[in-house]
Amino acid sequence: MANMADDPRIDPRIKAVMGHLVPEPSEDVPDRETLLAVAASDSAREYAETRNRFFDAIDTEDTASFEGLRSGEFSFVSEPGGHSIRARFIRPDHDDVVPCVVYLHGGGMMSMSAFNGLYHSWGRLIAANDVAVAMIDFRNSLEPSTAEEVAPYPAGLDDCVNGVRHVLDHAGELGIDPGRVVVSGESGGGNLTLATGMRFLRDGDDRIAGLFALCPYINGAWPDERYPSSVENNGYLIEIHSNRGRMAYGIEAFDRRDPLAWPGFATVDDVRGLPPTVISVNECDPLRDEGVAFYRLLLAAGVPARAREMLGTIHGTEIFSIACPDISRETASAIAEFAWGSGVS
Question: What kind of architecture, by CATH, is found in domain 4-341?
Answer without folding.
Answer: 3-Layer(aba) Sandwich (3.40)
